[in-house]
Design goal:
The chain is mainly beta and about 180 residues long. The protein is about 15% helix and about 35% strand.
């Protein structure tokens, strides 16, 4: 079988050249999209409430490792208090510690689970240990001596009463220039 056409010599200067248009390189587009996704994820991890740069000035932020196991928490600013609710499923009150130190509210918990099961021809023994921790910088105007913590159905509610000065609200009139 004879070949028709002209052979062209191939030379290499050590660099790869791609003459295929972008639509013929679908994996490059996928790779670029994944790189963007990873970059976006890395940027989102640096946002509040894990913002370490603003932790010194912003209430309810800061402290601790970024992704140490930390409970999901909600913070509400009520007229007479701040209320922090944290989900601590499977924990009981004796394994939870709530501390206030140097303007930081710290919630710590530890969960231990032991399971022993014996049957005919087998013995199963499992041990699980885990701890969580979350710290919040308290805003000014919290009466630390009256803070209360209540655990109900796996949800910890910490009530931080406001001082009389913090409860005062003043509306400032806006004037036209």
């Amino acid at each position: 079988m004879s070949e028709s056409g002209t052979k062209v010599p191939v030379s290499s200067d050590g660099q790869e050249h791609s003459s295929a248009p972008a639509e013929w390189r679908p994996f490059e587009n996928v790779r670029r999209d994944i790189d963007h996704l990873i970059d976006d994820l890395a940027r989102s991890l640096k946002r509040v409430p894990f913002d370490f740069l603003g932790a010194a000035t912003m209430p309810f932020t800061g402290g601790g490792a970024m992704w140490q196991l930390s409970p999901v928490a909600d913070i509400q600013n009520k007229p007479t208090c701040y209320e922090v609710t944290a989900e601590l499923p499977g924990m009981d009150e004796k394994n939870i510690t709530v501390k206030v130190t140097d303007g930081m509210l710290t919630i710590k918990g530890e969960k231990r689970q032991d399971k022993d099961e014996k049957g005919e021809g087998f013995y199963l023994s499992e041990r699980r240990f885990g701890s969580i921790e979350r710290a919040f910088r308290m805003p000014p105007g919290v009466d630390a001596s009256k803070i209360e913590a209540v655990l109900k159905n796996g949800v910890l509610t910490v009530t931080l009463p406001k001082t009389a000065e913090a409860k005062d609200e003043k509306t400032i009139a806006v004037q036209a220039a």
